[in-house]
Amino acid sequence: EILADFSELTAEDIRACLAFAADREKKLFVASL
Q1: What pLDDT, in 10s, does the model give residues 1-31?
Q2: d(C-alpha 10, C-alpha 29), whole Å
Q3: Which domain covers residue 26, as residue numbers?
Q4: Which residue, 19, 21, 26, 33, is the most exposed by fewest CB within 10 angstroms?
């Protein structure tokens, strides 16, 4: 759906965004312990 709504994005863009968000969440979780 995201790719349909934003034709300028690629599947690789979506994967990169999700990887960045997952990495950031991991760092925030560790910092809060």
Answers
A1: 999 999 999 999 999 999 999 999 887 776 6
A2: 29
A3: 2-32
A4: 33
Structural contact between residues 21 and 29, judged by C-beta atoms closer than 8 angstroms: no
Amino acid letter, 11 = A
Q: The tokens 């979506």 sit on which residue?
A: 14
> Whose CA is closest to 11, among 21, 1, 20?
1
Q: Beta-carbon neighbour count of residue 14 at 10 Å?
A: 13
Cβ atoms of residues 14 and 3 within 8 Å: yes
SS3 sequence of the chain: CHHHHCCCCCHHHHHHHHHHHHHHHHHHHHHHC
